[in-house]
Amino acid sequence: MLDIKFIRENPETVKKGIAKKYNNVNIDKVIKLDNRRREIIREVEKLKAKRNQVSGEIAKKKRAGESAEEDILAMRQTGEKIAAGDERLKNVENELNELLKWIPNLPHESVPVGKDESANVVVRQWGEVTQKDFKVLPHWEIGKKLGILDLEAAAKLSGSGFYLLKGLGARLERALINYMLDIHTKEGFVEIAAPFIVTENTMFGTGQLPKMAEDMYKTEDDNMYLIPTAEVSLTNTYKQQIIDYKELPIYMVGYSPCFRREAGAAGKDTRGMIRVHQFDKVEMVKIVRPEDSYHELETLVQEAEKIIQNLNIPYRVVTLASGDLSFAAAKCYDLEIWSAGMEKYLEISSVSNFEDFQARRMNCRFRDEDKKVKYPHTLNGSGVALARLIPAILENYQNEDGTISIPKVLKPYMDGWERIS
RNA sequence: GGAGAGGUGGCCGAGCGGCUGAAGGCGCACGCCUGGAAAGCGUGUAUAGGUAACCCCUAUCCAGGGUUCGAAUCCCUGCCUCUCCGCCA
């Protein structure tokens, strides 16, 4: 959520910013409604002040045993005017909020401007993408051969877009989750195990709602949503509260399954476990002082990179172009891991700074040393997505004989297994 | 799911329909006192909106409705917490 005061005072900045995100909320209308709103507030508050004052006088008269009939009658009328004013105010506010909640966060100045991912900028590359001297099978083929990935069984259970891991495949996923949690908690991230099903208001807080409603699973009887990322649960842990400045920065990490309907993505990445309706992910969230957030963004990217580096798989870091940025993000880096079987990079982590956009929506604030209440900045980053990492391991660690070596750092988590065969 | 009890400021805890944005205590901050500290004393200590303005005004005692000139206080609905029973991984 953008600050209405900021919009009022910087309409051109806002218009330019949302244009970079190819958003078309009518800012002039927002400002018009805001003016109307404040006009009505001034009107109604004047009447309320009058009512409060006269009600006090009525009380005094009654105590003194005098008649207050005249005042009561007058206030009855004032009360009607107030009710009418409040009604008009509510209507204007509803209309205003309906627009406000659709205004995206503005891109940071360092974000490349462009319509879609073709304008993304590669900021660095890690590891050598070397050709192996044999044909690397894509993960769905090698996974099937080894009996550790069964897409047919998943389809039988849940239809298309699900995966089922078996034996050492399932073990590998569990190992990765534990490994990643261990790495991040060592860096001071507090491990959180939070609910996977949340209320509508929680989804609004991090910005999934209203815009991404089509992409989420919703429970029929209770109006609850299945989280599309642990970001929702972790970040919203601090909604509707004032944090003491001494608690900042807050670092959290949590594992969760992620549920995504992928509406509109039909026909895209249909093979294997690359684009699925449910996948596991370890997610990191930071809540920090505003002046630190861009530095924190860089260290958060590095934290995610560490996982892939330790696994020794090539990847690159990309800055998303304005048009490719998500609704709530001001700046975002994607980590793209090399898929040796598909011979392309796959997005495996998304690390974003939301500045105070989510904090406003969540009504999460902190009390600073100077006693003032301020909005913190929130960030999150995948650390990392399993449905992309597992394929990358199955492909990059594939041997010519069709076996898969266990990455060194995972061996302690794999109960002595050296390879999958 | 059934039966009760309850939701007031950072915390605890008062609160007859008007004089309560809210007593009192704790905590915290600052000052006095002290060689220094503790104790003691004094002062201060919510958030949001309106506004150039923490001068003032408005709103907020879980949330939403209602009664009333006036609601933390009365009525209705919902949510949450606790206790007991039932069910259950």
- SSE order, one letter for each helix or strand: HHHHEHHHEEHEHEEEHEEEHEEEHEE
* Spatial order of strands in the largest sheet: 1-8-9-10-13-7-6-2
Percent in strands: 15-25%
- Tell me what the CATH architecture of the largest domain is: 2-Layer Sandwich
Mean pLDDT: 93
According to CATH, the fold-level topology of the largest domain is BirA Bifunctional Protein, domain 2
| SSE-based structural type | alpha+beta
Shape: elongated
- How large is the count of helical segments? 12
Any idea what the CATH superfamily of the largest domain is called? Answer: Bira Bifunctional Protein, Domain 2
**N-to-C terminal Cα separation, in Å?**
51 Å
The proportion of residues forming helix, as a percent range, comes to: 25-40%
The largest sheet, given as strand count, sense and whether it forms a barrel, is:
8 strands, mixed
Beta strand count: 15
Poorly predicted regions are none
Produce a short descriptive summary.
This protein has 421 residues and is an alpha+beta fold. The protein is built from 12 helices and 15 strands. It has helices at residues 4-9, 11-20, 27-63, 69-100, 139-145, 151-158, 168-186, 200-206, 230-236, 293-310, 357-362, 386-396; strands spanning 121-126, 190-191, 197-198, 225-226, 241-244, 250-259, 278-288, 315-319, 331-339, 344-353, 364-367, 373-374, 377-385, 404-405, 419-420.
Notes on the protein architecture:
This protein has two domains: 4-101, Serine-tRNA synthetase, tRNA binding domain (Helix Hairpins, Orthogonal Bundle); 117-420, Bira Bifunctional Protein, Domain 2 (BirA Bifunctional Protein, domain 2), CATH 3.30.930. By secondary structure, the protein is an alpha+beta fold. 37% of the residues are buried. Helix content is 40%, strand content 19%. An eight-stranded mixed beta sheet has the order 1-8-9-10-13-7-6-2. A three-stranded mixed beta sheet has the order 5-11-12. Strands 3-4 form a two-stranded antiparallel ribbon. It is elongated and about 100 Å long. The protein binds one RNA strand of 89 nucleotides through helix 3 and helix 4.
